[in-house]
Amino acid sequence: MIGSSLGHYRILRKLGSGGMAEVFAAEDTKLKRVVALKILPPEMANDAERRGRFEREAKAIAALDHPNIVTVFSVEEIEGVHFITMQLVEGKTLAELIPKQGIPQKRFFELAIPIADAVSAAHQRGVTHRDLKPRNIMVSSDGRVRILDFGLAKQVEQAPTEDTDELPTDELSGVGKIMGTVAYMSPEQVQGKPLDHRTDIFSLGVILYEMVTGHRPFKGDTSAALITSILRDTPHSVSDLKAGVPRQLGRIIRHCLEDDPQRRFQTAADVRNELAELQKEIESGELLASEVATPGQRAPRRPARTVALVGAGALAIAVAVLGLADRFWPGRTGPGTDLDRKRIVVLPLENLGPGEQEYFADGITDEITSRLASVAGLGVISRTSAMQYKNQRPSIKQIGSELGVDYALEGSVRWAGGGEAPRVTITPRLVRVSDDTQMWSQVYQRPLDDIFEIQSEIARNVVSQLGTTLLEPEREGVESKPTASLPAYQAYLRGLYFRQRPEYTLAHWQEAVNNFRTAVDLDPGFVAAWAELANSHALIYFLQMDTSDERKAQAKAAAERAVELAPTDPAARVALGYYYYGVESDYERALENYALAEEALPGDPRVLESTAYVERRRGDWPSALSHLEAALERNPRDATLVAELGETYAFLRRYPEAVRTYDQAIALAPDVAWPYIAKAWSYWLWKGRDGLAEAGEVIDQIPEPSDPMAVWVRFWQEVYEGRHEQALTVLDAVPQEVIESWHSIRPKALLAARALDLLGRSAAAREAYARAAAILEREIASRDPDPRLHSALGVAYAGLGRKEEAVREGGRAVELLPLSKDALNGGSYEFELAIIYARSGEAGKALERLERLLTVPWTVSAKYLELDPIWADVRRHPEFRKLADK
Question: How many whole angstroms separate alpha carbon 655 and alpha carbon 618?
């Protein structure tokens, strides 16, 4: 075509070609300028529908006005040839300019910031590129960056090229098909999922990585191998691969490369701003880019760790509400709540070894945290809050702001476990949050046998760098050696790993038990392993996964053995306290042991929380609230703890504070159902009928709509709004016949019977009550006495008109767990006995039960009683209004 003309365009020379099109330089003889012509492939140009979509897209791109985006002038057709006219940029592609060793730092920022700015500008106009790569970025002869093909790739199909990293680009509407250039694709893109602007942010991260290091973060000889790498691998930080690269730049790029779009930078403007701020700090001397890289292999990509409120069904509610996921982990996480202390967080150490060694890096993190927390001059953030940053690491300044810390300790761990003399490499880095300055770093390369000495040295160096005096009594905590057996220690770390997994399953906890048992078999004097063994057994028992006498005896024996070996050890005392709390419900003895642990570690958040949960059951709500608020100072990112605080506010009828606190829990754990459920419930309690609209909005946001408790709250919302048919439909979302939580067991038939009653379908309601009663009778016959079952059976009998039996079963539930014995859960059975009386026509007796609940902290209110028609007779009782007013 060179020398020929297309209308008033005279073809001068060929610029390039690819699967998408051929590109020529041409003279626009009308406007006397040289432009680029991109000739479209026939299969697109000849399809009227697709051509129309492309032309509409091109108009949107032509509206982009940014100095770093190549301008599209027009889409034209002459003599059957369809083409695009664009600004001609003379220069080289970024792919041609990246040397093997990467781009020098100063030039990197000169290029990277305009690229990010251009991507941001396009996103703000609703245009996504979807095929960002160095070959689509031109650097002109005057040094200016310009991005090509912005938005065109998502409309134009590409044929595969000879490059193994290329796959066809498909249409914008082609959901489920792979588009773009594989090496720069996001995980959602290679899986053919629907895309948004965040796919460009991942591609931008790949480009930035290549600019810094000279090579791509994901590798493979074929497209399939590349896709596997993108989905599986976590690239090593650029700051560890190349000397002199600021650690902050490594974090920025890593944040772009998060496999979950929700965890990436949410806008390209954020990337641009972070890069610009870092450039400013380097040029002003505020940040010294002097770290020495430690090359290492990529670790397998790990699934994102979720926060403590995780799970489904009754187990999720038990864990979420009672906060037992890792709440009784007895690690030393902070000596007190004095905010004048220097506050530090030990961030999860990065595992540079194989994925199966993840437990080792997590365990070393925990151990260093424990040693630092034994120093009175330091305030150490708890493990739970620190672990929120395991797979998502924002800037140190952001972490400092979120946790309220002055310093952060981070680093990496590599364990060469093979051979006769295994070795470990630990590279800690102490960073001052205010200016992201590295204060101290050291590489420890030692035999694995020296692991305890390494941990002690790291702790001592941190204490020294922070100018804190290490008192002689504290030296023992810093230099402790929990066991002389390295195999026992490794088993202990594996046990901790399974105990602290986010998936709350019996299989994981039993795996923890097995590893702790191995640890104490190898070293019968291993106190921490005995304590964790006791905690694991007790947790399994408490959550009613195994309430056998054998499990109970194993929990007690392990806890007592830990105390026998070390009577003053706080971990041993917490373990024995948890046994009395979770297994025996002996709250006085639980508090005695927590008090002894508090003497050894004043202000420890785990002890504070554990004490608070016992105090709530004893009815000491103000003290429990105080302890929870103090624990939150050391553990500000623990969504479970925040939700527990919200529940405590709700019991105290401080509803505005409860709602605000649940909002905080939702912000920390947006994918977990319980905080939404509890917030909706709080609106019922707070505003009654006037709060239904707000409660409904919250319920619509629940991320796990099929969670049994989510179904439960949605069912009652429909009932309270008078939509009884819809309430029946809601129950279909739960496949199991029984909805079980920490305070109630409800066959679906029992809930359905209530809705049928309200619909006036008496025969169907009676049948449902009978079906529910049969289920509950069967369960009672096969289980240990459980107040939840007796209470529910009483409600079912009341629905069947069997008044005496109903009152008997409801009374049995109250006897099994009276409010005086358990102020947290005991009220449930008083409340359901009131339901039984109301259903049986005994409004006065129902009111007597309600009066008791309305005058103590509990989750019932006069406004709440307005919602359910079952209380109609009670509300008409002359004493009800007096009580409600009071």
Answer: 22
Which segments of the chain have a pLDDT < 70? 17-21, 44, 50, 53-54, 56-57, 60, 150-181, 285-340, 416-421, 469-474, 476-477, 501-504, 742
Q: What is the pLDDT of residue 57?
A: 64
Q: How many CB atoms sit inside 10 A of residue 737's CB?
A: 11
CA distance 240 to 291: 8
Does the CA dihedral 478-482-486-491 come out positive or negative?
Answer: negative
The rounded distance, in Å, linking the Cα atoms of 505 and 509 is: 7
- The answer to whether the beta carbons of residues 279 and 252 sit under 8 Å apart is no
- Indicate the SS3 state at residue 862: coil
What would the two tokens of residue 727 be? 């309430």
Catalytic residue among 28, 117, 131, 149: 131
What string of DSSP letters covers 55-101?
HHHHHHHHT---TTBPPEEEEEEETTEEEEEEE---EEEHHHH--TT
The CA distance from 340 to 465, in Å, is 17
Beta-carbon contacts of 441 under 8 Å, excluding residues fewer than 6 positions away, are 291, 411, 427, 428, 429, 430
End-to-end CA separation in angstroms for the chain:
92
Question: In whole angstroms, what is the distance from residue 801 CA to residue 399 CA?
Answer: 60
Check if the beta carbon of residue 659 is closer than 8 Å to that of residue 834: no
The string over 362-397, giving b where at least 16 C-beta atoms fall within 10 Å of a residue's C-beta and e elsewhere, is bbbbbbbbbbbbbbbbbbbbbbbbbbbbbbebbbbe
Secondary structure string (H, E, C) spanning 104-163:
CHHHHHHHHHHHHHHHHHHHHCCCCCCCCCHHHEEEECCCCEEECCCCCCCCCCCCCCCC
In this structure, the dihedral spanned by the alpha carbons of residues 429, 477, 405 and 493, taken in order and rounded to 10 degrees, is 70
pLDDT, residue 502, reads 55
Q: How many Cβ atoms from other residues are within 10 Å of residue 785's Cβ?
A: 12
Confirm whether 604 is a catalytic residue.
no
Q: What is the CA radius of gyration of the chain?
A: 32
- DSSP label of 785: -
Burial (CB count within 10 angstroms: exposed 0-12, middle 13-18, buried 19+), residue 175: exposed
CB 39 within 8 A of CB 156: no
3-state secondary structure 723-735: CHHHHHHHHHHCC
Number of H helices, E strands in the chain: 38, 20
Amino acid in position 97: L
Q: Which amino acid is at 540?
A: I
Q: Which pLDDT belongs to residue 289?
A: 36
Name residue, tokens 């419900």.
Answer: 585
What is the CB neighbour count within 10 angstroms for residue 141? 9
In angstroms, the CA 696 to CA 482 distance is: 52
Reported in sequence order, the residue ranges of 708-828 that DSSP labels E, i.e. its strands, are 738-740, 745-747
Integer angstrom CA distances of residue 875 from 417, 689, 816:
71, 14, 29
**Nearest in space to 332 (alpha carbons), one of 296, 293, 375:** 375
Count of C-beta atoms within a 10 Å radius of residue 13:
10
What confidence score (pLDDT) does residue 411 get? 87
Which tokens sit at 248?
């902050």
Number of C-beta neighbours around residue 270 at 10 A: 17
E strand or H helix at 885: helix 878-885
CA distances from 368 to 312, 498, 553 (A): 33, 19, 33
Letter string b/e over residues 420-429, b meaning 16 or more CB atoms within 10 A of that residue's CB: eeebbbbbbb
Q: How distant, in Å, are the alpha carbons of 11, 45, 51, 83, 96 from that of 75? A: 17, 11, 10, 6, 29
State if pTM tops 0.70.
no
